[in-house]
Write a structure and sequence with these properties.
0% strand; Tetracycline Repressor, domain 2; 2 domains; mainly alpha; Arc Repressor Mutant, subunit A
């Protein structure tokens, strides 16, 4: 047998890697079957054999980015033991990831995870574990943990979104403001912890 042509040796991971490369080079608008096929030097139908069009491509890429981000955060915080330091380090990791990979971060954050999907549910659980470990919130009920995580995600995502949109125009260091916000979030989380464990 001769050497297999590229379309026949193509794997889903090849497609995901090419899509992420397109994202990094050209931004979110490059996340499409036709653009990724050009990047791979193949015809678009070859991608449809592995992923369900643009919707399947976006899902696969979003999940791959989430996994990469979670591994990155875990590796950068593995030796930090003090809870508040761990929370700050995780939040800084998130901001640094968004700065280094703005298009990847946008795709990751904008993808709506479905708890009924086994792959997505595992990423949701891993995100919750990372957050729970960062602040040692082992005594929180599931509802309180979700409340705290939603609050933190909204604050950090909102800050990063404004920063990426170049809306931080006031004469104040964005780094300093981010630090103050993290300190305030810790106070708010301690409040949620206090009312949850006392009720």
């Amino acid at each position: 047998m001769g050497r297999p042509i590229k379309e026949k040796s193509l794997t889903p991971q090849d497609v995901i890697n090419a899509a992420i490369a397109c994202l990094d080079k050209e931004g979110e608008s490059a996340l499409g079957v036709n653009r990724v096929a050009r990047e791979l030097g193949i015809k678009p139908p070859a991608i449809y054999k592995h992923l369900d069009g643009n919707t399947g491509l976006r899902r696969a890429v979003a999940l791959a980015i989430w996994r990469s981000y979670l591994v990155d955060c875990q590796e950068q915080t593995t030796e930090i033991m003090e809870p508040h330091d761990l929370f700050r380090a995780t939040a800084l990791c998130t901001r640094n990831f968004a700065r280094s990979h703005p298009a990847q971060y946008t795709v990751m954050i904008q993808y709506q995870m479905k708890p009924t999907d086994p792959e997505e549910a595992e990423i949701i659980r891993e995100s919750l574990r990372l957050f729970q470990n960062a602040l040692q919130l082992y005594e929180l009920s599931d509802d309180a943990l979700i409340d705290a995580m939603r609050m933190v995600n909204a604050a950090i995502y909102g800050f990063i979104l404004r920063e990426q949109s170049e809306l931080m125009t006031l004469n104040r260091s964005a780094d300093d403001s981010y630090g103050v916000m993290l300190d305030a979030l810790i106070v708010a989380i301690e409040y949620i912890h206090r009312i949850n464990t006392s009720s």
